[in-house]
Design a protein that fits this description.
Elements lengths: L1 H32 L3 E5 L1 E17 L3 E4 L4 E6 L6 E2 L4 E5 L2 H44 L6 H41 L1 E3 L4 E6 L6 E2 L7 E6 L6 E8 L3 H10 L2 E6 L2 E13 L4 E3 L2 E10 L11 E18 H5 L20 H5 L1 H5 L4 H10 L2 E8 L2 E12 L3 E7 L6 E6 L8
Antiparallel strand pairs: 1-20, 2-11, 2-16, 3-10, 4-6, 4-9, 5-8, 6-7, 8-10, 11-15, 12-13, 12-16, 13-15, 14-15, 16-19, 17-18, 18-19
Helix pairs in contact: 2-3
Length: 423
């Protein structure tokens, strides 16, 4: 009997000990399984919205200088990257053939002028003979017959025509000489503008053949120190923002790989209407103008461009990481579980595909709702949802348009990883 009582008392003692230890153990496991939330604070600051693109650096103007005449290059006076003045001599073509042509045409012009003098002399002689014959006929009709008068008259008319032909030959000879002199002048290759030689495509002794196509000899870029252009292609979805930025005079910033630590500044010079479609994507050329006093921007460089399209100052900023966070439903308070229950994540992920079947009104409504989101804050052991409406965004923050948030309020962005035993 005593043995049974001892057993019962022992069991009661063990059960009491277990009961007494249950509450601390349960609380320990609850705390151990409770996630540690990553949190960030809202803050006030500036949000700058940008549209990113890439572009190619080009001179404002590239003047291609060619040759109108053929022949071997005799002299070359300039080289790559050399700055030249307007009308400066760049190269010469062997001019011997063209000089000979000029001499021939000058001789032909002199011959034509001599022919005019000869024709004038003969015509004057014919006029004098006709006048004498008419005077004799007035004295006595029998002295000169009508047939003789006709011969004198038509001889004069013939010589008048010969004089006109000779005079026309002078004009023709002069035109030939002018053409030859022009060709002779073309043997001197001169720069039509002041600028820098950015390309030279000939070497001394090279023979040019300009009969079928004008050969390109030099490319001169004027005013490279004053201004360079960056040619960017902007998606049609962003071109409205780019136009607004141009109207507001907002700056454009860009970088080039050659100077990774330098930030260059420019302005939107032009939005061209000549669209390009590639794989169903429509883009428009946007020209950015930038100064280049140090000649760091060289033709052909690739620029990474950020168009500053809008800006908000001294606004409450919501971290984008908090807007992207969706918690596990078991950690959400009961009142907010309906926000997560039955959520069609797949449909939301494929929203762009769903829009293809929507009307224009439906699309506009869906796009408005995209700015209405929920962020989550810690409330006791659970998370509470706060509905917010966002506006302008950059890479880290979004503007708070409406919602019960204050500056410095902590928002959940994720779960801290659990530390293992012995950590």
């Amino acid at each position: 009997m005593k043995a049974r009582l001892k057993i019962v008392l022992g069991l009661l003692l063990v059960g009491g000990a277990c009961a007494a230890a249950y509450q601390p153990v349960a609380e320990y496991w609850k705390q151990r399984n409770q996630p540690t939330w990553k949190q960030v604070e809202t803050n006030k600051g500036t949000i700058i919205a940008v549209v990113n693109s890439t572009g190619t650096v080009k001179p404002v103007l590239s003047v291609q200088i060619g040759s109108f005449v053929s022949g071997p290059i005799k002299d070359l006076f300039v080289d790559f990257n050399q700055e030249v003045e307007k009308d400066e001599l760049l190269a010469t073509i062997d001019a011997r053939i063209y000089e000979a042509t000029v001499a021939r045409d000058r001789a032909f012009l002199a011959t034509s002028r001599a022919e005019v003098d000869r024709a004038q002399s003969l015509l004057q002689q014919a006029i004098n003979n006709e006048e004498r014959a008419l005077s004799l006929q007035e004295e006595n009709e029998d002295f000169i017959s009508d047939q003789e008068l006709d011969q004198l008259k038509f001889n004069r008319l013939s010589l008048e025509a010969s004089l006109k032909v000779a005079q026309a030959s002078i004009d023709q000879a002069q035109a030939n000489l002018d053409n030859s002199l022009a060709n002779l002048g073309y043997t001197e290759i001169r720069s039509p503008v002041a600028g820098m030689i950015i390309d030279r495509k000939i070497d001394p002794g090279q023979t040019l053949a300009a009969q079928f196509q004008t050969p390109e000899l030099f490319v001169v870029a004027p005013n490279m120190r004053e201004e360079m252009h960056i040619y960017a292609s902007v998606d049609e979805a962003d071109i409205g923002l780019i136009r607004s930025a141009q109207e507001d005079g907002r700056p454009v910033h860009f970088t080039v790989d050659a100077y990774r630590d330098d930030l260059f500044k420019g302005a939107i010079a032009e939005i061209r209407f000549s669209s390009t479609e590639l794989q169903n994507v429509v883009t428009y050329p946007v020209i950015v103008a930038a100064s280049n006093p140090d000649l760091k921007l060289l033709p052909g460089m690739t620029a990474s461009i950020s168009f500053r399209v809008d800006e908000r100052e001294n606004t409450i900023r919501v971290p984008n990481a908090a807007l992207r966070f969706y918690p596990d439903i078991k950690y959400v308070r009961e009142q907010d579980k309906k926000l997560l229950e039955g959520k069609d994540w797949d449909r939301e992920a494929n929203a762009e595909e769903d829009e293809a079947a929507m009307s224009a009104t439906e699309k506009a409504e869906v796009r408005k709702k995209r700015n209405r989101r929920h962020v989550w804050v810690v409330e006791g052991d659970f998370l509470r949802a706060i509905e917010v409406e966002t506006g302008l965004s950059d890479s880290k923050y979004s503007e708070l348009v409406s919602g019960d948030l204050k500056e410095g309020q902590k928002l959940v962005t994720g779960v801290e990883p659990k530390k293992g035993f012995g950590s």
